[in-house]
Specification:
This protein is of the alpha+beta class. It has helices spanning 5-19, 107-127, 149-172, 195-203, 216-220, 241-260, 271-288, 307-311, 315-325, 331-341, 345-365, 444-462, 493-498; strands at 37-39, 43-47, 53-56, 59-61, 68-72, 78-86, 89-90, 95-100, 131-133, 177-186, 208-210, 224-226, 228-237, 370-376, 380-389, 393-397, 414-418, 421-428, 468-473, 479-482, 488-489, 503-508. 36% of the residues lie in helices and 23% in strands. The strands form 5 sheets. A 10-stranded mixed beta sheet has the order 9-14-15-16-17-18-19-22-20-21, sandwiched between helices.
Length: 516
């Protein structure tokens, strides 16, 4: 007799809880909907007689033997879901677990690092607004996928002043078009006589009354004349394609801004930034409900070729903001939002490192960088973030080297570019717990950690013009293997970027918890 859905689920939950350890009471709400904590790099064996494969996140696991599955999370932290399948059909709803790092003795310390990392990420990103730009704006259409809350946060914070100024100009001088309004006016006020007016008089005898004989129309109508006649009156209308576009865009901003305020991480955003978003959202709401839009209908098409949108003050700025807003599907913000929702510490650490490096390089050079997100005409809405330090160099996030390596495609997390050439590459390695010493015996655990330094060798030796490759990890020890002296020594980020140091190694980089 086959097991029921509830029996399969209960059996799977019981096995997971038996082989893992429970979520501490003080973290149950924070780690919801996870039912248990699992350690990264540990093996968990699950026996599910009814299943022929197991979905774990986006991976499909097959049995190791006779319906026994080996569950092991490598380089994956945070919320994960486990779901058994048979013959392509799910046997029960997915079961959520929390994968925690073996670096931390307790789940509280793991989650504590996650919180500090997230808070520092928001604080740094608030200080470093992006300039959202692209090589061309042609072909931009509305995205079917709504913008991520993180993108909305950056967009409203960055462009609040431009949006406020554009709306003020549009309200002060809204675009109007001349239109004709058909109405009946007293005969004495009529100024138009054409075939249409004459036909209307003949077809509307109820409008006739005894008239003066001197009038031509009275003689023609046997002594009668119309009291009112049909006239086309010129009028100004606000119901234009351009105003429909404005009203439509305001609604999109309003919906996105109100959803942003409901995000569970909203309280972690710096207070100054939260106030800025609230103010611009409130302004958007007031303008959206302004009387000027009472007669404006729904937008039926995007008037992207309109000369009003392309040239007129206020409208031109709003069109530019709309184009930037509809770059919301760029992978960076989507990836960051997903990492927050899944509590993916490793991915958040990689993104945090980008902001931390920009801050640190800015302090070293005593410069404020110019940050840009660029679209790609070939790849659509894909992009690379870059921080330019004029006259010195550029830090590029996720630069590709498909033409730089003579063997395989390589993509380090970060590149320091000078005069168009990558000179230093850096990789964020959250899993690098400690650095192996020169006399350390190789073991299974040590080999996994050495592999990060081996990868730095790959970058350094395979990529043309690269003089140094460094792993960045949340530790405390610095190590650098100098290619020239063949010795290991300590090194600073300033020496690495400004000097001629050649070699590989690792630099510690981690957020510091603020004192309360």
């Amino acid at each position: 007799m086959s097991s029921s859905v509830s029996e399969i689920r209960s059996n799977l939950i019981a096995q997971i809880r038996e082989r893992s350890y429970p979520i501490p009471p003080d973290l149950r709400s924070a780690l919801s909907p996870a039912i248990a904590c699992l350690r990264e790099w540990s093996d968990y064996w699950l026996e599910i007689p009814e299943a022929d494969w197991l979905r774990v996140g986006d991976q499909h696991l097959v049995p190791v033997r006779a319906r026994v599955f080996r569950l092991r999370f490598e380089n994956r932290l945070g919320l994960a879901r486990v779901q058994p399948f048979a013959d392509g059909a799910s046997l029960c709803p997915p079961i959520a677990v929390e994968v925690v790092s073996s670096k931390f003795p307790t789940p509280q310390q793991h989650y504590g690092f996650f919180k500090v990392l997230l808070e520092d990420l928001f604080a740094r990103s608030a200080r470093l607004p992006f300039d959202l730009a692209g090589p061309t704006e042609r072909g931009v259409t509305e995205s079917l996928q709504p913008p991520t809350p993180l993108f909305v946060l950056h967009f409203l914070s960055q462009y609040a002043d431009k949006l406020r100024g554009a709306l003020a100009l549009i309200q002060a001088r809204p675009h109007r078009r001349l239109a004709e309004r058909i109405d009946r006016v007293p005969l004495a006020e009529a100024s138009q006589v054409d075939a249409g007016v004459l036909q209307d008089i003949i077809r509307s005898p109820e409008q006739w009354t005894e008239g003066q004989e001197m009038l031509v129309v009275t003689r023609r109508l046997a002594g009668y004349a119309p009291t009112h006649v049909r006239q086309s009156l010129p009028t100004e209308s606000l119901d234009t394609p351009e105003n429909r576009f404005v009203h439509h865009f305001l609604r999109q901003l309003l919906v996105a801004g109100e959803k942003l305020l409901m995000e569970p991480w909203w309280s972690k955003v710096p207070m100054r930034r939260r106030n800025r978003v609230r103010v611009i959202t409130s302004l958007t709401r007031r303008v959206y409900h302004h009387p000027m839009f009472e007669t404006v209908g729904p937008m039926r098409y995007l008037p992207l070729s309109s000369q009003v949108l392309l040239q007129r003050d206020g409208y031109r700025t709003l069109l530019d903001l709309w184009r930037r807003f509809h770059c919301a599907r760029r992978p960076f913000f989507g990836r960051l939002q997903e990492a927050i929702e899944l509590r993916d510490v490793a991915t958040l650490y990689e993104i945090w490192v980008f902001f931390a490096l920009i801050d640190r390089i800015g302090l070293l050079l005593e410069q404020n960088p110019s940050l840009t997100l660029e679209t790609s005409a070939r790849q659509g809405l894909s992009w690379h973030a870059r921080a330019r330090f004029p006259g010195v160099g550029t830090l590029v996030y996720n630069r590709g080297f498909r033409k730089r390596s003579y063997s395989v495609a390589l993509r380090p997390d970060f590149s320091w570019v000078e005069n168009g050439r990558a000179r230093v590459v850096l990789d964020a390695k959250f899993r690098l717990e400690r650095l192996p010493s020169e006399d350390e015996e190789d073991s299974g655990e040590a080999t996994a950690k050495r592999s990060d330094l081996y990868k730095m060798h790959t970058y350094r030796d395979a990529l043309e013009n690269v003089r140094a490759a460094m792993a960045l990890y949340p530790g405390s020890e610095t190590l650098f293997y100098d290619q020239v002296s063949r010795t290991s020594r300590s090194i600073t980020l300033e020496e690495l970027l400004a000097g001629n140091a050649s070699g590989i190694g690792a630099l510690p980089l981690k957020p510091i918890e603020k004192e309360t």
